[in-house]
Amino acid sequence: MNRRAFLAALAAASAALALPRAVASARYDFHFTRLKYDSGDWDVDARMPSNLITALVDYTTLRVDPNEHVIALSDPAMLRAPFCYLAGHKLVDFNPAERANFERYLRSGGFVFVDDCNHDIDGLFATSFERQMAQIFGANALQKLPNNHALYHSFFAFPEGPPATGFELNGWGDDLVHDYLKGIHVNNRLGLLYSNKDYGCEWDFDWRNKRFLAEDPTRFGVNIVMYALTH
């Protein structure tokens, strides 16, 4: 069962449980769903969703919802989204409802892309989020993704693995280029993609300046979405 089949199955189950109406609809193949959570700062990189949405329209044949949807992690409606994004700079400390939904979503076949805006492997977001994942899924659940993972070939080819960002070596952070991404697999399916590379900031550019970029950085975002929808 791929992610679209999961969405259909979960939507039917959610309807039976009388869960709230979700953001997804049959009109679109993709909806950008941002998760807000009570701790930390979730509302970062405000222009990133529209830039990623534009890239999906430009490069793929997906029917893409033009709007970003923000939904609370504690809201059961998030369980119906085929793709979710969670980011921030600060503490990640899920409350019981957030934790329950996060675990249920991943164990049911959902996909979450989590991006550390600190681009810092020892920063507050990284240490607190990784601690949360160890508590929920086990100490060794987060694993390095090999550079030949299907994610890097799901649409565009990235033979060297994850592309670096300009933010890894600038500003605050650990002054390192992180040469890998991590993930959590549930039932042999990647449910969580975790990045310290700060892709959100890399893709948070003024759309009017895109023509001056040597290479469109949101191309890797297209890979993430296409992988999430088809695996």
From TrEMBL:
Segment forming the signal sequence: 1-18
Domain (DUF4159): residue spans on this chain: 31-229
Keywords: Signal
Keyword field contains Signal: yes
A Pfam cross-reference name: DUF4159
Taxonomy, superkingdom: Bacteria
PROSITE patterns: TAT
InterPro entries referenced in this protein's UniProt entry, alphabetically: DUF4159, TAT_signal
Entry protein name: DUF4159 domain-containing protein
